[in-house]
TrEMBL record:
TM stretches of this protein: none
Lineage, highest ranks first: Eukaryota, Viridiplantae, Streptophyta, Embryophyta, Tracheophyta
Feature: compositional bias, Low complexity: 36-51
Region (Disordered), start-end ranges: 35-62, 69-88
NAD(P)-binding domain segment(s): 93-301
Pfam families: NAD_binding_10
Top-level taxon of the source organism: Eukaryota
Organism of derivation: Lithocarpus litseifolius
Record-given protein name: NAD(P)-binding domain-containing protein
Length: 337
């Protein structure tokens, strides 16, 4: 069953603009896709922009509008947890529609991040140049085992996997980026390469993965996307690693086409800010990419979500924002029903 909790309206969720340069290049972006890499390399990112601090956001505001005005000071939403300084989060698919929102939120929280992406230049165009201690960008593709060198995972404490591709044949399948390659082989390769010391991996999957042979899910699964996502989930479950699975409904609010976070993250979910979280693959509906990204980050530190899968929808109403307590209530309520 699903649970619904309504909170303060989504209004402001400022990310220090100093972390991102002015728009300078248009690079297409979309959710989840990865393509074959040609080599392994890492790039660092550094900040360069300063400005006046913005007015403080309303209490418990949702981070639906991540960037508002230049600031070098933390706001209520950018406060880190006591363990944030010791975190190093690897984001697979960090330049996709959900992944780029995950990365922006991690930067806002001053959590060190490492991105595994097929196109480092695209990542730099999105996130600007940050100090290597803050953000590292590594070229690689999860469905190519040779790209997953052990050095990539040195020091990594948490992983958020946002990789994926389209359910039906499209240009995103170019380079053999099919559901089998990305959602099954890629997840299997990534999970197999992760160190046993990992504290948590959060995998973004999909609603309907347990019912892919039933209508209407069988239509979406014509080319195997739900079946292969379920195979990836099962492999993770059997890996022995601490995990949480997030199964969003049909993704909305993107993929964005602003190509730069200064404008990209000003997008909102409109009136659909409230969050429904359920278990048992019973939810049917849509999910804002912004909400999904926040759910992934919140789940990293919730011990009671370990070893569990949650479905997530966005509905009309006011949302939990980045408030950990409200997200805990949502996740716990889903388990209680």
């Amino acid at each position: 069953m699903a649970s619904r909790l309504l909170f303060t309206p989504i209004t402001d969720f400022p990310v220090p603009v100093e972390k991102f340069p002015k728009p300078h290049q248009r690079v297409p972006c979309f959710t989840f896709a990865l393509a074959p890499p040609t080599s392994y390399s890492s790039k660092s990112i550094s900040s360069s922009r300063r400005g006046s601090p913005p007015p403080p956001p309303p209490l418990n505001a949702v981070k639906e509008e991540l960037i508002q005005s230049p600031s070098s000071e933390r706001t209520h939403d950018s406060k880190t947890s006591p363990s944030s300084s010791s975190k190093l989060v690897l984001v697979a698919g960090g330049s996709g529609g959900v992944g780029q929102l995950v990365v922006a939120s991690l930067l806002n929280r001053n959590i060190k991040s490492r991105l595994l992406v097929r196109d480092p230049e695209k990542a730099i165009s999105l996130f600007g140049k940050q100090d290597e201690e803050t953000l590292q960008v590594i070229k690689g593709d999860t469905w190519n085992p040779e790209d997953l060198d052990p050095s990539i995972f040195e020091g990594v404490t948490h992983v958020i996997c946002c990789t994926g591709t389209t359910a039906f044949p499209s240009k995103r399948w170019d380079g053999d980026n099919t559901p089998e390659r990305v959602d099954w082989e890629g997840v299997r390769n990534l999970v197999s390469a992760l160190p046993s010391s990992l504290k948590r991996i959060v995998l973004v999957s999909s609603i309907g993965v347990t019912k892919f042979s039933e209508l209407p899910w069988s239509i979406m699964n014509l080319f195997g996307v739900l079946k292969f996502k379920r195979m990836g989930e099962d492999f993770l479950r059997n890996s022995g690693l601490p995990f949480t699975i997030i199964r969003p409904g049909r993704l909305t609010d993107g993929p964005y086409t602003s190509y730069d976070l200064n404008t990209l993250l000003k997008a909102t979910a409109g009136q659909r800010r409230a969050v429904l979280i359920g278990q048992g693959d019973k939810l049917v509906g849509e999910a804002s990419r912004i909400v999904v990204a926040e759910a992934c980050i919140q789940a990293l530190d919730m011990e009671f979500t370990e070893g569990k899968a949650y479905e997530i929808n966005s509905v009309e109403g006011e949302g939990p924002g980045s408030d950990p307590q409200k997200w805990q209530e949502l996740f716990k309520a889903a388990q209680a029903q």
